[in-house]
Amino acid sequence: MLLDGTRWILNRHFPSCEGRKLRPQGKVRIIQYCSLHTPRVVLNDEFVKADCSFPWFPVHSIRMEILGKEWKPGDGVILADGAWGTEFLKRGLTQGNPAEEWNLTKPKEVQTIAREYLLAGSRIILTNTFGGTRFQLERHGLGAKVREINRIGASLTREVCEGSAITAGDIGPSGKLYIMGEVSEEELFEAFQEQAEALKEGGAQWIVVETMTDIGEMEIAVKAAASTGLPVVASMTYERNPTGYRTFMGHSPEDAVAAALKAGAFCIGANCGSGVDTYVELASVLRSLTDRPVWIKANAGLPELVDGKPRYRMDPETYARYVPSLVEAGVDFIGGCCGTSPAFIRKMAETIRDHLFFR
């Protein structure tokens, strides 16, 4: 099922262009492509020579803005990116300051992170706009720059991704407790729509609504994002407790999936949370609830505070060991959240390649 002959591109993640050969399983049409070489087709079960070190990826990851809403489970596995927040902290961002401001003040640093994920194997890369709603930016005196920050944030990622990966506009929680009446539905919709429109203007091809814990806020964000006409991913954050998986606000996966699809999401998923080990079971739950694509971006375990900064103990090799289980659970888009890095994505790319083609 995963080796759909006309759909797979194998830019194998090999250390050099020294002629290592790979015989794919079965009679598979393989398109060999990367940004450095001309695409060519190898028919049936011929040997395939690896001619560059650029990571492999499925063809859909280049054309997903066309195929997005028609994507079906089983069409392939695509790597998304990893954490952005912890990458900014490594580069000098002070805890509590908005990373989104770097779109204006340090654009090259933002693009460096996107580029490192691209080279590691990510084929869906988010924008640096997680806290880009008016409500979040106003806390830092940036309310007048909402559209500029989001538009430029999208354009920075798009410049890096062009022709090689999908630019996914990132929308996180508003920071307002909608469930407690801190903000009206109309105000929340307008804020999310403002952000989504600016992301589209900047070149975003998807919108990812992520790290949501309140179904009501998620529904409004998805509707606002869907109003742009772009494919929308709806991702909630869950923890496991004695009654099963629940968001911080107490919502179940069953309720969240139903609400996300009704609001217009083409893909549902989960991100952040307590760690990738607990999200394998959650992935199976989500897969059982829908025939739409499933998205998983888990944390690298639980953090510890070291010198005032969060530190995650899980290493790339340990994290990547869970990837085959996520693939077997039926996950379509796999990435990482807090504590992960380009090194994690690179190891995940190697693991997926080996799991699919060297079993």
List keywords for this structure.
359 residues; alpha/beta; 2 domains; TIM Barrel; two-stranded antiparallel sheet; 13 helices; 8-stranded parallel sheet
Beta-strand fraction estimate: 15-25%
| Order of strands across the main sheet | 5-16-13-12-9-8-7-6
Instruction: Round the mean pLDDT to the nearest integer and report it.
Output: 81
Inertia-based shape? globular
Give the tally of β-strands.
16
Architecture (CATH level 2) name of the largest domain:
Alpha-Beta Barrel
CATH class of the largest domain: Alpha Beta
Which structural class fits the helix and strand makeup?
alpha/beta
CATH fold-level topology of the largest domain: TIM Barrel
N-C termini distance: 14 Å
- Main sheet overview: 8 strands, parallel
Q: How many domains, in number, for the residues?
A: 2
- Helix percent band: 25-40%
Oligomerization:
single chain
CATH superfamily of the largest domain: Homocysteine-binding-like domain
The sequence of SSEs as H and E is EEEEHEHHHEHHEHEHEEEHEHEEEHHEH
* Contiguous helical run count: 13
Which stretches are poorly predicted, pLDDT < 50 over at least 5 residues?
A: 1-69
Briefly summarize what is shown:
The strands form five sheets. Strands 5-16-13-12-9-8-7-6 form an eight-stranded parallel β-sheet. The protein has 13 helices and 16 strands. The protein is of the alpha/beta class and 359 residues long.
Explain how this protein is built.
- It is a single chain.
- With 359 residues, the chain is α/β, with parallel strands linked by helices.
- The protein has two domains: 1-54, no CATH class; 61-357, Alpha-Beta Barrel (TIM Barrel), CATH 3.20.20.
- The protein is 37% helix and 19% strand.
- Mean pLDDT is 81; it is low at 1-69.
